[in-house]
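Table S5 (text form). Sequence records supplied for joint modeling of the two-component complex.
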Amino acid sequence: MATATASPTAPDARLDRRRFVADLVARLPEDALVVTGLGSPSYDVCAAGDRPGTFYLWGAMGAAAPLALGVALAKPDRPVLAESSNPYAALRHVHRRREPPAPHGELRPSALCPTASAAVR
Amino acid sequence: MFTALKKHDIQQIAYVPDAGHPHAIREAQRDPAIHDVVLTTEEEGVAVVSGAWLGGQRAVLLMQSSGVGNCVNMFSLLQMGQFPSLALVTMRGEHAEFNPWQSPMGRTTQQALELMGITVLRADAPEDVGETVDAALESAFGAGERVAVLLGQKLIGRKKWGRD
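The corresponding structure-token record, covering 285 residues in total, follows.
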């Protein structure tokens, strides 16, 4: 029968998430802005020591990455960190590209522009 | 509409590609003073415009009526943060609609927005669009309200099928 118990000879390779986040936050530049997704990301970042420039979400699931994108576009001179427990939701935004506008022709939904996720495979 | 966006210093627009807003999208893409943010789903746009406000910029969200339903829980963010916001919503499921799948959300778009604490304005005639959007921008960024403008399906005209 399969069990979840680690082999006694294998090292425990589990990530200590709270410690990882604390280390990450400690390494952030002083002017960094931080957005945290609801639940554990907010708890972890707060536990690492509350700092100015942090926006904690405690709902609005899926908001962390796009909210951070809005902040980053508005504040191009500040580093912005989004911490999310949903890596897919986070990744589909960060590869946003700005395409030049089509020079001529009617705009159609399918031809309007690539979506942000088009760059993520 | 785009004139009103410029007048009110809108610096980000977030949208899912949609034939209902071609002029505003095209102008925003051409304008170096506006970031156009392409979304994979409308709810992301609610977060983008919230982030823009936190970062000190004004942003507007463009979507079709069907997208309003995708945003319902994300609208919590606008209430909890008390973020000023404007959504411009092109309507489907009403005038000369040929696709029945557009009707359930089209019929309930206004109520869905209002249930989530958003004030709804509406324009059905071309000559009303500029003034209505301008007034909505004033309510949003002057008075700090959460506002949506529904752009009636008559404005968009009958959809014609064609090859891309």
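Note: The first strand of chain A starts at residue 33 and ends at 36.
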